[in-house]
Design a protein that fits this description.
single chain; 72% helix
Length: 106
């Protein structure tokens, strides 16, 4: 599992660097804070979009999950969560190890 997590973090780091020009390791503190703020807001938005793909309202009669759309929104959310993880300045290798170890300890 850590190999897949590491692969995703490396790909996300490359996407941010090569496509969007975000040097997540070399950012200044102000750049990092702006990046974190933007990605937290984007993550919240994607999670609300995922919620919108479900019948979550207890007062309504809808009782469903639009599985494909729900998963697609969670994938979008995962991109922003990975950005936040990478904004720590740790390498993908360090992050993958820390995340796996932290998860296993919980």
């Amino acid at each position: 599992m850590t190999d897949r997590l590491l692969d995703m973090l490396k790909r996300q780091n490359s996407l941010q660097n090569n496509t969007y020009g975000h040097d997540l390791i070399g950012m200044s503190t102000d750049e990092r804070l702006d990046y974190v703020r933007t990605n937290v807001l984007a993550l919240q938005s994607e999670l609300f979009e995922a919620l919108g793909e479900t019948g979550w309202k207890p007062w309504a009669t809808a009782n469903h999950i639009n599985t494909n759309a729900y998963v697609a929104e969670l994938v979008d959310a995962w991109h922003f969560l990975m950005n936040l993880l990478l904004a720590t300045g740790l390498s993908p290798e360090e992050l993958a190890a820390d995340l796996f170890d932290g998860y296993a300890k919980k």
